[in-house]
Amino acid sequence: MTALLDVDRLTRRFGGLVAVNELTFSLDAGEIVGLLGPNGSGKTTALNLISGLVAPTSGQITFDGQPIGGLPANRIARRGIARTFQLVRPLPSLTVIENVITALAFRAEALWGKPAEEAAGRYLEQVGLTVRPGQAAVDLTYIDLKRLELARALAAEPRLLLLDEWLAGLNPTELRAGIKLITALRQSGITVLLVEHVMDAVHALCERCVVMNAGRKIADGPTADVLEDRDVVRAYLGEVDA
Ligand SMILES: Nc1ncnc2c1ncn2[C@@H]1O[C@H](COP(=O)(O)OP(=O)(O)OP(=O)(O)O)[C@@H](O)[C@H]1O
Ligand SMILES: [Mg+2]
Which of the two ends of the chain, N or C, has the fewest CB atoms closer than 10 A to its terminal CB? Predict the structure, then answer.
């Protein structure tokens, strides 16, 4: 089977800093894989590269057999890759529904008008967000902002979903709901690459993890093995010492 996503020696420099350094890994369709690593190890930059927010300095990204490295974000979105942001960023001056509707414009088949409104309602329901008609995005609680962020990503009808610490900052009840939601997304056929520091969630969701440290991949394998790996433990402990 060919991989859905194949990342090959992907590298991104910012001046003298190599934020992502020769990163190589692949995802099969239907997998949920954790992308782990201490703060500043290059996880968000890796997602930025895959989603087209940042262009690679070198290396290849192949999605569904096609090279996508360096394409603009909107074209990558149309191929079927959506992401959430570590710092949630809905459009605060719009209503919740309008926020999802604007995301519908990024689909291969864009929706407008009444069908768009109905579709937006379905995505909000899917993520468990109930809102009053006309409710402003700016009034949402933190968990509901996260739900909105996910609804916006799902509105793009992704085959690959990139989640950047989507579960961070949730209380235990919300975390359980979030894990259930991501499990349901996977069951619906979406492949997920999940950047996460919440280890309970990583254990619950990911059969496999890729671990980065200082831009490089230091481990890739079954979650339990990877989390016991000497280099991985040292990378995380090093962070505590710092
Ligand atoms: N646009 C940018 N310009 C300059 N440096 C950047 C840029 N984006 C990221 N970096 C640097 O690249 C390195 C990796 O950052 P990145 O955000 O990818 O880490 P991360 O693994 O997501 O960390 P965290 O767990 O804290 O979110 C950091 O040193 C960061 O300061
Ligand atoms: Mg990050």
Answer: N
Token digits of residue 111: 């929706």
Residue with CA closest to ligand 1 atom 4: 14
144 and 177 together in one domain: no
pTM over 0.90: yes
Q: What ligand has the least distance to the C-alpha of 42?
A: 1
Range of the domain at 136: 92-157
**Total of domains in the chain:** 2
**Is any atom of ligand 1 closer than 6 Å to the C-beta of 44?**
yes
* Pocket of ligand 1 contains residue 141 by CB under 6 Å: no
Residues of the chain with pLDDT under 70: 1, 239-242
Does residue 87 sit within a domain?
A: no
Ligand nearest to the CA of 46: 1
Nearest Cα to 21, choosing from 2, 1, 40? Answer: 40
